[in-house]
Amino acid sequence: MTEWLLCASSQIGHKYFQLPVAGTEDPEYRERVYCYELYHRWRCHWLEGFPFSLSGEVDKNGHPLIRRAPKPDFLVHIPGQMTNLLVMEAKPRNAHISRMVDDLKKLTTFRRDLLDQQGRPRNYYAAYFWIYGVSPEEWRQLRQRLLQEMRGNQEIDPSLISCYIHERSGARATPVS
Q1: Does the pLDDT value for residue 84 go beyond 90?
Q2: Looking at the predicted structure, is the pLDDT value of residue 116 above 90?
Q3: Burial level of 115, CB count in 10 A (0-12/13-18/19+)?
Q4: Alpha helices of the chain — where are they, by DSSP H?
Q5: Nearest 5 degrees, angle CA 45-CA 50-CA 52?
Q6: Is 21 left (phi over 0), alpha (psi -120 to 50) or beta?
Q7: Cα dihedral 28→75→69→139 (10° resolution)
Q8: How many CB atoms lie within 10 A of CB 142?
Q9: DSSP, res 158
Q10: Rounded CA separation 113/106 (Å)
Q11: Are residues 171 and 136 in contact, defined by beta-carbon separation less than 8 angstroms?
Q12: Distance CA 9, CA 80 (A)
């Protein structure tokens, strides 16, 4: 399933990676435009019969079996069951650092703090933090800023989260540490 995602990342065209804006010369990073295209490309790789479904921005607030659940960008799960595989948050390179930290809190919640009403864990097997438009060198700098912002924050456990960068359209995303 991760391989399908990485293949999909290499198929994102420039106009989805950075949206052209009328009246300006410079295109802009638009998270939803990028995520919708990534969702589409990822689904195109989904194998028939694979038991998990890909969902985008599922709001689990008010869910009859789950409490305290934020809305992630992507979920890979079996709808109607409490069988959870992957939760993913994506951010463009120019997202504010506080929004990235919020996403890391959200991912940690889905990995370790997701409980049903009986207090049983319903955690996701994996969590991906996905940054697009950033080079490996820029990631190292961004990572240091994130670690500094997260210092002492018990709501975030980086060991539960895998990070990926998607440097440019037409290129394949890569895992980073």
Answers
A1: no
A2: no
A3: middle
A4: 2-9, 14-17, 31-44, 97-108, 136-150
A5: 100
A6: beta
A7: -50
A8: 21
A9: G
A10: 10
A11: no
A12: 28
- What is the pLDDT, as a whole number, of residue 111? 87
Q: Assign 80 a pLDDT band (cuts: 50, 70, 90).
A: confident
User: Degrees (nearest 5) of the Cα angle 74, 113, 79?
Assistant: 40
Per-residue model confidence (pLDDT) at position 66: 55
Whether the Cβ atoms of residue 88 and residue 72 lie closer than 8 Å to each other: yes
CA separation, residue 16 to residues 61, 75, 117 (Å): 29, 21, 40
Tokens for 81? Answer: 């069951």
- pLDDT tens-digit readout, 104-114: 999 998 888 66
Tokens 């456990």 correspond to 157
The model's pTM is 0.90
CB 16 within 8 A of CB 169: yes
Task: Give the mean pLDDT of 91-99.
Answer: 96
Residue 36 corresponds to which tokens in the numbers above?
Answer: 């919708």
Q: Where are the domains of the chain?
A: 2-176
Amino acid at site 33: V
Cα separation, 67 vs 104, whole angstroms: 18
DSSP 128: E
